Amino acid sequence: MARGAVIFDLDGVIVSTDDCHYRAWKRLADEEGIYFDREINHRLRGVSRMESLSIVLERANRPYTAEERQMLAERKNAYYRELIAELTPEDILPGIKPLLERLKEHGIKIAIGSSSKNTPLILERIGLANYFDAVADGNAITNSKPDPEVFLLAAKKLGVPPAHCVVIEDADAGVEAALKAGMRVIGVGTAAGNPRATWTVASVADLSWEKLVKCFPDV
Ligand code: BG6
Ligand code: MG
User: Fold this and answer.
1) Which domains can be identified in the chain, with CATH numbers?
2) Residues with Cβ within 5 Å of ion ligand 2?
């Protein structure tokens, strides 16, 4: 049996696509004359595209039909894909690659647990397409974070019990999702101030290997 697993969120943990999401939503909101800023954007972290759109439209001065919403979501995604088309392996955030390699060396499984339907494209752009033992993403789930579905799916695909999984997350919704899945969770970046996380670090580059391996007693 596997010694345990680390499940990585993608946007804002592996790569800074969280800023690309912000720029794409901002472009759409500006075109529609809807107020949008980084604080509102913070609430979109970890949640699905359509749920994100509903949050953006809270500031709209007219109702949008289901059909219009669909078109807005598609437009935002087109703007977003223009931005992520430019990603390269250089965009992998500091500390990620050495950590992934060390986990592999120690027989600890690695997975992605992301709400994004663009996960396959991003992994391909940054050169990690066939690198993970399992990928659970927005294409395979019905309920996005804070629902635990994506992390439970990752654990199932790995064949590792949730109690032996550690999640690394930058979104408060993702921290909640991991806890509901019965997993420990390390809050990084914008979740570094989240008191609900099992522990927090400013960046993955600051993560202590000694502390992490204690989660896997037989390593
Ligand atoms: C999450 C992001 O990873 O994916 C959210 O944190 C985003 O901001 C969600 O809304 C869905 O992404 P996509 O790529 O399917 O629109
Ligand atoms: Mg994230």
Assistant:
1) 5-16+90-215 (3.40.50.1000), 18-84 (1.10.150.240)
2) 9, 11-12, 170-171
